[in-house]
Amino acid sequence: MAGEFDLIAKYFARPTPDAVLGPGDDCALLQPSPGMQLAVTTDMLVAGTHFLPDTDPRNLGWKALAVNLSDLAAMAAKPRWVTLAGALPAVDESWIARFADGFFACAAEYGVNVVGGDTTRGPLNLCITAIGEVAPGHALRRDGAKPGDLIWVSGRPGLAALGLAHLQGRVSLPEPWPRLCVGALEKPRPRVALGLALDGIASAAIDVSDGLLADLGHIAERSACAAAVKLVQLPHLPKGPTYDADLRRIALECQLAGGDDYELCFTTPATQVQAIAGIAARLELPLWCIGEMSAGPAGAVTVFDPDGKPVEFAHKGYDHFGQSA
What we know:
The chain has 325 residues and is of the alpha+beta class. The chain has helices at 4-12, 57-74, 93-109, 159-167, 177-186, 192-197, 212-222, 245-257, 273-283, and strands spanning 37-46, 78-88, 113-121, 125-134, 150-154, 204-207, 226-230, 264-268, 287-294, 301-304, 310-311. It folds into 2 domains: 4-134, CATH 3.30.1330.10; 150-311, Phosphoribosyl-aminoimidazole Synthetase, Chain A, domain 2 (Alpha-Beta Complex). Helices cover 32% and strands 22% of the residues. The strands form 2 sheets. It has a 7-stranded mixed β-sheet with strand order 6-8-5-9-7-10-11. Strands 1-4-2-3 form a 4-stranded mixed β-sheet. Helix 2 (57-74) runs parallel beside helix 3, helix 4 packs across helix 5 (177-186) and helix 4 crosses helix 8. It starts with a helix and ends in a 14-residue tail after the last strand.
């Protein structure tokens, strides 16, 4: 049976042309581009919490990296390098090979070098640190929104949560939803190009990982603003068969509080509407204006129905320690 260093050499030691020194020593050596700042993020994925244990390992490899690149995208940082640490319950070379294929496929698509990491025996757990670059003063942060700024979200948040509900048997999705929603769950697309395009246009940004309302609340809290979301401006459901009222209700709950989307939620001054339309067309990515920031209690997020009346939702997002946001 292959040992730890044999597994690393066989499946994870790949060329790292953008690193001074890649895997093989006690540390990697990295040289940022002249005048750039480093953006660093770490995310952990635990079996049974962040993914189902029977998830296709190739998709899991893609997602493990993609969710970290999504954090870099939210700060308008260009991805450069990543490290991967993993605990494995046993050596299953077929599983490891497929996982590595997915991980390096994502790395190749987004121009990232894998420069190190670690492996150990234990419950299945993956921890990735991603490093990107951004020019000083150009990082998108959560604290830049102002009253009157418009609120936007990319793509169609909620599909991933619907995919999870379908896999868990909590809802039965009509065709063609299962492929679309499970695909959104297992192979998210980090919005790196969007994040870079928003430099100089957006006032604040965050990636949607724990739920749209919860993550928008983080922008509102850090920016000392309130946020108003209008139901009629939310992304519409994908084309498909007639949706019954129960499925529409579940879809709305997933859209507002489901999480695991890795879309970007961001704010812009109202003067940037045409610029956002141009970005959406160039990237072929729907960008939806869903509301407006306002003066009010810091962190407050209110959803309004078509008649302008506030609507209460029991849950706004996911909390890892068991309490709804």
